[in-house]
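ok so for the tutorial part 2 we go from a plain amino acid sequence to predicted structure tokens. step 1 is just haveing the sequence, like this:
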Amino acid sequence: MSLPHALEIFGAGIVAGTINTVVGSGTLFTFPVLLAIGYAPVTANVSNTVGLVPGSVAGAIGYRRELAGQRARAIRFAIASVAGAIIGAVLLLSLPASAFKDIVPAFIVIALVLIMLQPRMARALEARRSRATGHPGLLAMLAVFASGIYGGYFGAAQGIMLLAILGLSLPTEHLQRVNALKVVLAGLVNLVAGIIFIFSAHIAWLPALLIAIGSIIGGIAGARWGRRLPPAALRAVIVVVGITAIVRLV
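step 2 — the prediction. this is what the tokens look like for a chain of 250 residues:
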């Protein structure tokens, strides 16, 4: 690997770690970079999943104050996330590589639509939070389980999905506390899927390491300063990168 490619992957890891902590969809930065450098789609996906785990840990540590008092809730949702992650990772390894290449463009389109709708979703969640009360029920657990399957298989915009699910399920919670829980659950999905991939798939370890180091920096930055990023500019960049990934795959 050349030095420019290594720096490109490292930089993408920083951006992905920051965005995963703030919103979600950091995969739409690291995955296209790995594709552009020449890695096969499945190899790029599993290496990216492994590499992003440390960034999620850093982001969760940064949100530790917002996580206070959410232990019981986090454990319940974590069980659903882990079960989903296992199924998603097994599906990725069981289905032919051609299936991944065919399916993922559709997933990226879904991710981009979610990103563009994110402001409306945030306003809807705030409105619901101001007038409703409730506790997570079976439907919320099933939705988190489904997001875990998605995250274990690919994962772009899993964080946005989780924000919507958790925001609707926990209408009385402050959005930052919901986001903190999202960081933990999305990171847990990456961790479980990553462990499976380490033992069952081919990992490109140098890119994974570069993404890991970069994502740690990004995770810390996201928890401290990432909320100050201009939302419109951030969404625009993510959309451009996502479209680039679709072109590469198609």
